[in-house]
Structure formats: C-alpha cells, structure tokens
Amino acid sequence: VVISNSTIAFNHGNPAASGGVSLYDVSALVQSSIIANNTAGSAGRDIGGTNSSIGGSSNLIRAAAMDVPSDTLSGDPQLLALNSNGGSTRTHALLATSPAIDQGENPLDLQTDQRRSPYVREFGVATDIGAFERQPGPDPIFKDGFDGA
C-alpha cells in the first residue's frame, strides 16, 4: 500500500476499525499525507490495523492506533470544509496557520496538487503535506480577464 500527497479526513468507520485507514497484514508506505479528523464509533481513530506496519515520512496523522514514522506530526491540520477550491474535484484547503504548510515533500515529483493546473505542487519554502498546496488564487477583481483599462 502506498499513500502519497493525499488527504484522508472526516470519514466515519466501524467502532472495531479505523475511520480513516485500516490496515490488515500489510506494510504501508505513507508519504507527505494528512490522515486526520476521522472517527470510529465515538473515538478519533485515523489509522490502525492488525499485523501491519507503516513506513514513510513527512506526514500529519492525528490519532494513530499503531506506530507511525518518527517525524510524523500529530496536531490539528486545520483543514477547511470540503469545497470547490478550483479544479475538477473538491478539496480540503489548509488554513494559513496549518502545521502542514511547507512541511511535506513531493516523492512522486508531481507538477500540480489534486486540483491540477494552474495549482502547482510546490509553492513556497517546501511542499505542503496532503493533497492541497496552499497558494494565492487569482485576484477576484481580475478573474474574468477584465482589468478596467
């Protein structure tokens, strides 16, 4: 199992499992991904499993029921609601104060984030963790191409 530059959030699962990712008899490689704010029953449980292991780096996993890589962040990723933030799919944007900003990597050398062009995968000091790369959008005054001149 490989999970890279992904956001898995706000899912609900069976109380006996995990709301985000449940692993069984597998080794997972998780890279630069957010797995947070998922629940299983009434418990916050983002990732767990049986007879499994997780490798990788530069992740933000809020509540793990198994060992995660040592550099994993565990705080609130400060995700906004699933919304149309540009592109053909809805995404969870990051608040400007999110600990995921500039803390990730781009192991697959992606050119864009989940929204595709013109939203580059790397903006700022480093790649953001997750599927969304925080960057300024078009100026709403000029988004229709009218500049008033």
Q: Could you characterize what this model shows?
A:
The protein is an all-beta fold and 149 residues long. Helices cover 0% and strands 30% of the residues. The protein is built from no helices and 13 strands. The strands form 5 sheets. Strands 1-5-10 form a 3-stranded parallel β-sheet, with no helix packed on it.
Query: Would you count the extended β strands for me?
Result: 13
- Name the overall outline: globular
**What's the helix count?**
0
Radius of gyration: 17 Å
- Strands in their spatial order, largest beta sheet: 1-5-10
The parts where pLDDT drops under 50 for at least 5 residues are none
Report the major sheet.
3 strands, parallel
Q: Strand pairing plus helix content: what structural class?
A: mainly beta
Helical content (DSSP H or I, runs of 4+): under 10%
N/C terminus separation: 54 Å
Give the ordered list of helices and strands: EEEEEEEEEEEEE
The chain-level mean pLDDT equals 91
Q: Please report which band the strand proportion falls in: under 5%, 5-15%, 15-25%, 25-35%, 35-45% or over 45%.
A: 25-35%
